């Protein structure tokens, strides 16, 4: 596991096209003595038309295309592996120039096409049920690397449109705050991927200060809090970072988020067999959920090789759901996708690191 000094001393990964905003692109092209309209042309080719190379930007001068290719790569990643499930879930493992890898997933579901993307390489949180938590944080992703994953996934679903983006892959988005917010703004912007704020979700284990800061950004996005336990004691056993803020503090921060944005908070609850799936857990969860405007997403655990946790039975999941609903909680069970590929977060990356892909 990399320590903080290792991470600080690593060279900053090179900037790519998706790191730029219209302002920084305009400035760069101005410095290159290009006319003002060029930045709009390049942005349209990259986001609206979704071309994979500057060579496809046919109304740009050849010399400019060459310079952009050399100095500001459009896509900086390569696809290390691609798995497609029988339910058409597609999981990509992207390799960055410094050797780091990231997972991103396309989840097609009825009329939705959702990209699930990562915000860090590895994850510092270390949830006990999570494959990626085993290896710790390797480095932060740049804003452009976060956007690039969404663009890669968008290319996977063509000719359909990507409809949703969830920052729920590897990493804690709010522990890479500035990059996450810049990436979300790009995904949301009309000049960028033009995905409506209500179709963008940031999932966090819960950093109250950053949740409040996010609320003040005035983006109409959804906040998903990974609660996973209804008491502080149990939560600390499952999520090591739970010691940093108790549930009461998190609920306060979520209330602030709702007050500032008018957006209900999603409470994510991963059902781990015989750990947090009992009827008393459900009753306590209902009490927590009803303190704020929220909806509860129950997720049935997908077993991960090497970890001791079990999947709860369908009957247990149904009973848990019924307990919440009869107490007036807006609750759903999220369907597990891609179960015939390495769909739990971190599995594909770990297999690749072990030389199995
Ligand atoms: Fe990190 Fe999410 Fe895995 Fe927890 S579940 S270790 S926050 S990637």
Q: Which key features would you list for this structure?
A:
single chain; 357 residues; alpha/beta; two-stranded antiparallel ribbon; 12 strands
Describe, in plain words, how this protein is organized in 3D:
The chain is of the alpha/beta class. It is 35% helix and 18% strand. It has twelve helices and twelve strands. The protein has helices at residues 4-9, 22-31, 38-48, 62-71, 143-157, 177-188, 208-216, 232-238, 247-261, 279-289, 314-326, 347-353, and strands spanning 78-84, 90-95, 101-109, 112-116, 120-122, 137-140, 164-167, 200-204, 222-226, 265-271, 294-300, 331-334. The strands form two sheets. A ten-stranded mixed sheet has the order 1-2-3-4-7-8-9-10-11-12. It is elongated, with a radius of gyration of 21 Å. The structure holds iron/sulfur cluster (SF4). Residues 123, 125-127, 130, 132-133, 170-172, 205, 345 line the site of iron/sulfur cluster. Iron/sulfur cluster binds next to loops.
């Amino acid at each position: 596991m990399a320590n903080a000094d290792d991470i600080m001393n690593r060279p900053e990964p090179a900037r790519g096209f998706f790191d730029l905003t219209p302002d920084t692109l305009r400035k760069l092209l101005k410095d290159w003595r290009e006319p003002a309209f060029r930045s709009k042309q390049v942005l349209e080719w990259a986001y609206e038309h979704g071309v994979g190379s500057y060579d496809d930007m046919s109304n740009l001068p050849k010399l400019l295309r060459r310079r952009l290719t050399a100095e500001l790569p459009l896509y900086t990643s390569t696809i290390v592996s691609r798995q497609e499930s029988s339910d058409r879930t597609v999981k990509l493992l992207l390799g960055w120039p410094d050797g780091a890898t990231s997972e991103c997933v396309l989840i097609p579901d009825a009329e939705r096409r959702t990209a699930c993307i990562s915000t860090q390489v590895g994850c510092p949180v270390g949830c006990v049920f999570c494959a990626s938590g085993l290896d710790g944080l390797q480095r932060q992703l740049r804003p452009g690397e976060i956007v690039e994953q969404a663009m890669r996934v968008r290319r996977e679903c063509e000719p359909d449109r990507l409809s949703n983006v969830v920052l729920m892959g590897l990493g804690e988005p709010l522990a890479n705050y500035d990059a996450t917010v810049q990436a979300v703004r790009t995904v949301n912007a009309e000049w960028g991927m033009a995905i409506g704020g209500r179709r963008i979700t940031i999932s966090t284990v819960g950093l109250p200060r950053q949740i409040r800061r996010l609320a003040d950004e005035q983006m109409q996005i959804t906040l998903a809090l990974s609660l996973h336990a209804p008491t502080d004691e149990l939560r600390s056993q499952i999520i090591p970072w739970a010691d940093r803020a108790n549930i009461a503090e998190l609920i306060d921060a979520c209330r602030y988020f709702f007050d500032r944005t008018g957006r209900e908070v999603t409470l994510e609850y991963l059902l781990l067999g015989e750990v947090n799936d009992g009827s008393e857990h459900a009753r306590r969860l209902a009490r927590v959920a009803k303190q704020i405007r929220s909806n509860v997403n129950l997720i049935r655990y997908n077993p991960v090789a090497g970890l001791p946790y079990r999947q709860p039975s369908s009957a247990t999941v149904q009973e848990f759901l019924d307990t919440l609903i009869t107490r007036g909680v807006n609750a759903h069970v999220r369907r597990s996708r891609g179960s015939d590929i390495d769909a739990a977060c971190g599995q594909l990356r770990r297999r690749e690191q072990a030389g199995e892909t």
